From TrEMBL:
Keyword check for Chaperone: no
Cellular component annotations (GO), alphabetically ordered: plasma membrane
Keywords: Calcium, Cell adhesion, Cell membrane, Glycoprotein, Membrane, Repeat, Signal, Transmembrane, Transmembrane helix
Residues that span the membrane, as ranges: 286-309
Record domain Cadherin: where: 6-48, 49-158, 173-271
Molecular functions per Gene Ontology: calcium ion binding
UniProt xrefs under CDD domains: Cadherin_repeat
PANTHER family hit by this protein: CADHERIN-87A, PROTOCADHERIN GAMMA-B1
Keyword Acyltransferase found: no
Protein name in UniProt: Protocadherin gamma-B1
Length: 319
């Protein structure tokens, strides 16, 4: 008789020794051993070795590269202990899940199917399932959270100053009586990256009058460093570089055109003497005229040469 529930995973085999004894004088007995083997049923679900996992993957990772691995074990025997892995839930779009990640049903290795972009996808979560082959099948789930790390793959983008319709830089006016520290303008830039990769710094690359303006390293504010003197030109040009904090850093440039004037009407004539752009149609017509003139000259030379040869032959009696 079975006194309590038996568990094959704890004890797979029992050896029971039975002794039969009579009540005679002297007492005689006989003993035998009964060996009992426990049969297998699918009474254990797979158990993951980790409750949950957090994985860091840098962006621009190589496609079809492994990014994580989960493992589970099942103490049952045969098909009841054979575990296969699958993805059963995710916060990604179900239609696009297979284009992002996949899992090996045999090993539990999770693969990235594409290169991740931190600016488009910063984190996502998967629910992985380990399922045995028993009947009925038993399963267990585990959560896997993937964090997409940032890389410095975006250069700063200058929002101001903008370019005019013809592609030229716009200009800002500065009062002639501006005192040191006067806020002239501000260079505005953004970076799509995160963290240190998005920390911007502003530097002056070229200045038509060094020392006349100062530039905020972190703010991008352009201020007058001193008062305008009579020797300073009314038109000033600054070439500003915007760098991020990545390694290696990426940068962009902005051109500032500054005019010292007390009004916009006074500043406009300074830019009216720009050389006019050449007309492509006029240049084409010029080249056509030159080509026709060359062809005409060559034709006249050929005619003169032919007439000269004809006259020379007619003057020769032997000919």
């Amino acid at each position: 008789m079975i006194d309590s529930a038996l568990d094959r995973e704890q004890m797979a085999e029992y050896n029971v020794s039975i002794i039969a004894t009579d009540k005679g004088e002297p007492s005689l007995s006989f003993s035998t051993t009964v060996t009992t083997h426990m049969s297998e049923i699918n009474d254990n679900a797979a158990v993951f070795h980790q409750v949950s996992s957090l994985v860091h993957v840098p962006e621009n990772n190589p496609p079809r590269a492994p990014i994580a691995q989960v493992s589970a074990s099942d103490p049952d025997l045969g098909p009841n202990g054979q575990v296969s892995y699958s993805i059963v839930a995710s916060d990604l779009e179900p239609r696009t899940l297979s284009s992002y990640v996949s899992v090996s049903s045999q090993s539990g290795v999770v693969f990235a199917q594409r290169a991740f972009d931190h600016e488009q996808l910063r984190a996502f979560e998967l629910t992985l399932q380990a399922r045995d082959q028993g009947s009925p099948a038993l399963s267990a789930n585990v959560s896997l959270r993937v964090l997409v790390g940032d890389r410095n793959d975006n250069a700063p983008r200058v929002l101001y100053p903008t370019l005019g319709p013809d592609g030229s830089a716009l200009f800002d006016t500065v009062p002639r009586a501006a005192q040191p520290g006067y806020l002239v303008t501000k260079v505005v830039a953004v970076d799509a990256d995160s963290g240190h990769n998005a920390w911007l710094s502003y530097h002056v690359l070229q200045a038509s009058e060094p020392g006349l303006f100062s530039l905020g390293l972190r703010t991008g504010e352009v201020r007058t460093a001193r008062a305008l003197s009579e020797r300073d030109a009314a038109r000033q040009r600054l070439l500003v570089a915007v760098r991020d904090g990545g390694q290696p850093p990426l940068s962009a440039t902005a051109t500032l055109l500054l005019v010292f004037a007390d009004s916009l009407q006074e500043a406009l004539p300074d830019f009216s003497d720009r050389p006019a752009l050449s007309d492509p149609q006029a240049e084409l017509q010029f080249y056509l005229v030159v080509a026709l003139a060359l062809i005409s000259v060559l034709f006249l030379l050929a005619v003169i040469l032919a007439v000269a040869l004809r006259l020379r032959r007619s003057s020769n009696p032997a000919a």
